[in-house]
């Protein structure tokens, strides 16, 4: 048996207004919740049992996934009463684990879309007799991430959180949000208080001489924490750039769910997703965007690099570029919303105007 933990307790403040009513890991990425993509990839790697570490809106996960049988795994839920940080959340699920003290336990951050070799990471953990293995990926600009340099043998030498000066950028390897823990290491994390796995647990293991290794994989990786990244992840799945067993065989320019209505002269491109019950009117252009279920883009509207929430309406001739529109919001005809604008759920913009990110 191989167990995994998915940390899905975050509120996703950077993705508001989409997360006002829906936890970030349950937002549909190309029509499938991020958590479902992760469960499907874990199952593909041999995971048979998954513990969901929930906090914000835990009932949304239970209602959708149930006991996990529909998704080919056993699902167990561990809900935090108060947020405990990444390390505290991992320790909180420990009583629900069945693994022995020397067995591997996979831990995934709940907002990552990845194509890395999960089974290969577990095997590398075994081969190196590691206490913890970290999935690392290389990025061109690592300043916004935690840096993880390794030596010639793959052992982690430091943890450097978000460097502030050029001198601190000693590697392009970053913590990519998937770990293999020896079960006994999870049991050693303090209980009853917030713990940061990045700032406390991992540095503490190094200080004690534990074997902490890096598994470097240059496959697809994306942090879905911002609106533009969320749109990119959805498009990459539709275009087949990001692998997911939950959405197999995608290679087209767009994906339209059954029940959606798209007029023949509408143009969908660059990985656009159109959810069930959504409509796209005559002459509308939807470019690299995601329309949630029951959204409407009226005739002649132009929507680029945007997310349109469930039941939201984009009026005739409106133009949106890099915009997040919350559930049931209404953008009246002729409105122009520029990159960075966010419209909160239920808000109606009726007059013709240009709206910026301060508008709610």
UniProtKB/TrEMBL annotation:
<feature type="domain" description="Mannose-1-phosphate guanyltransferase C-terminal">
    <location>
        <begin position="252"/>
        <end position="352"/>
    </location>
</feature>
<dbReference type="InterPro" id="IPR005835">
    <property type="entry name" value="NTP_transferase_dom"/>
</dbReference>
<protein>
    <submittedName>
        <fullName>Sugar phosphate nucleotidyltransferase</fullName>
    </submittedName>
</protein>
<dbReference type="InterPro" id="IPR029044">
    <property type="entry name" value="Nucleotide-diphossugar_trans"/>
</dbReference>
<dbReference type="Pfam" id="PF25087">
    <property type="entry name" value="GMPPB_C"/>
</dbReference>
<feature type="domain" description="Nucleotidyl transferase">
    <location>
        <begin position="4"/>
        <end position="236"/>
    </location>
</feature>
<dbReference type="InterPro" id="IPR050486">
    <property type="entry name" value="Mannose-1P_guanyltransferase"/>
</dbReference>
<dbReference type="InterPro" id="IPR056729">
    <property type="entry name" value="GMPPB_C"/>
</dbReference>
<dbReference type="Pfam" id="PF00483">
    <property type="entry name" value="NTP_transferase"/>
</dbReference>
<comment type="similarity">
    <text>Belongs to the transferase hexapeptide repeat family.</text>
</comment>
């Amino acid at each position: 048996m191989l167990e995994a933990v998915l940390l899905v307790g975050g509120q996703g403040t950077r993705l508001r207004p989409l997360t006002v009513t829906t936890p970030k890991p349950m937002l549909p990425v190309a029509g499938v919740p991020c958590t479902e993509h992760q469960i499907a990839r874990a199952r593909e790697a041999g995971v048979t049992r998954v513990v969901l570490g929930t906090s914000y809106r835990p009932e949304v996960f239970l209602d959708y996934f149930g006991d996990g049988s529909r998704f080919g795994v056993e699902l167990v839920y561990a809900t935090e009463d108060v947020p405990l940080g990444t390390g505290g959340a991992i320790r909180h699920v420990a009583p629900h684990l069945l693994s022995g003290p020397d067995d591997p336990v996979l831990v995934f951050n709940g907002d990552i879309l990845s194509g890395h070799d999960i089974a290969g990471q577990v095997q590398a953990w075994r081969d190196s007799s590691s206490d913890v293995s970290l999935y690392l990926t290389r990025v061109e600009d690592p300043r916004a991430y935690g840096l993880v340099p390794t030596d010639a043998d793959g052992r982690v030498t430091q943890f450097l959180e978000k460097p502030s000066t050029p001198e601190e950028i000693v590697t392009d390897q970053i913590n990519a949000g998937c770990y293999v823990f020896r079960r006994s290491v999870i049991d050693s994390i303090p209980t009853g208080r917030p713990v940061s796995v990045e700032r406390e647990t991992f540095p503490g293991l190094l200080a004690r001489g534990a074997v902490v290794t890096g598994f470097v994989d240059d496959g697809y990786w994306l942090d879905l924490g911002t609106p533009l990244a969320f749109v990119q992840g959805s498009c990459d799945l539709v275009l087949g750039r990001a692998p997911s067993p939950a959405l197999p065989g995608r290679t087209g320019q767009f994906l339209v769910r059954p029940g959606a209505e798209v007029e023949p002269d509408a143009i969908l491109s660059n990985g656009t997703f159109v959810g069930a019950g959504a409509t796209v009117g005559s002459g509308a252009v939807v470019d690299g965007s995601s329309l949630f279920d029951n959204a409407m883009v009226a005739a002649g509207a132009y929507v680029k690099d945007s997310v349109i929430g469930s039941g939201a309406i984009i009026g005739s001739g409106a133009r949106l570029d890099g915009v997040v529109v919350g559930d049931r919001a209404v953008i009246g005809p002729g409105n122009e919303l520029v990159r960075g604008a966010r419209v909160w759920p239920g808000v109606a913009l009726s007059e013709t105007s240009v709206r910026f990110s301060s508008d709610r």
